Amino acid sequence: MAFVLDASVALSWYFTDETSSLGELAFERIRGSEAVAPVLWWFEIRNALLASERRGRIGAAQTTAILTSISALPIRLDATERDEPILALARIHRLTFYDAAYLELAHRLSAPLATLDRALARAAHAAAVPLLGEGEA
């Protein structure tokens, strides 16, 4: 079953100090399925890696290795333009437009959302969007 993957979870796969049980579950799930993310995910991943380089957390070679690794995974980017539903979710749940894009995608696809962002997780609960791993046996 496909799930919506946010950048926080994907990045947790590559930074040992950010590992989580949700990240491990998402990584395991992606091996037998597909993850979907809004197209902004592509930019978020690269921006976070660049910021990590600038802070001295990783080097350019590590960025390249991470991008090579993550590009090999079955992650489909959704470029559907949905201004009004995303804006509405951002307003209702006081999210950034970016975070609301993940919520809208999960809602539209009736897919669980994988996020480590607390505000986004709270909004998902409020919007009756399931979170990856919750309620699963």
Task: Using brief descriptors, characterize the structure shown.
4-stranded parallel β-sheet; 7 helices; 4 strands; 137 residues; alpha/beta; Rossmann fold
Give an overview in words:
This protein has one domain: 5'-nuclease (Rossmann fold). The protein has helices at residues 7-12, 21-32, 40-54, 60-71, 83-93, 97-109, 118-126, and strands at residues 3-5, 35-38, 75-78, 113-114. The model has no long low-confidence stretch (mean pLDDT 95). It is 57% helix and 9% strand. It has a four-stranded parallel sheet with strand order 3-2-1-4, with helices on both faces.
For the biggest sheet, the summary is: 4 strands, parallel
Query: Architecture in CATH?
Result: 3-Layer(aba) Sandwich
- In total, the number of domains comes to 1
Q: Give the helix proportion (percent range).
A: 55-70%
- Mind telling me the CATH class? Alpha Beta
Task: Please give the radius of gyration in angstroms.
Answer: 15 Å
Got a strand count? 4
> Averaging pLDDT over every residue, what do you get?
95
Contiguous uncertain segments of 5+ residues = none
CATH topology: Rossmann fold
Q: Going across the major beta sheet, what is the strand order? A: 3-2-1-4
Query: Structural class of the helices, strands and pairings?
Result: alpha/beta
Give the strand content.
Answer: 5-15%
- Helix and strand pattern: EHHEHHEHHEH
Helical element count? 7
Distance between the termini: 14 Å
Q: Give the CATH H-level superfamily.
A: 5'-nuclease
| Shape category | globular
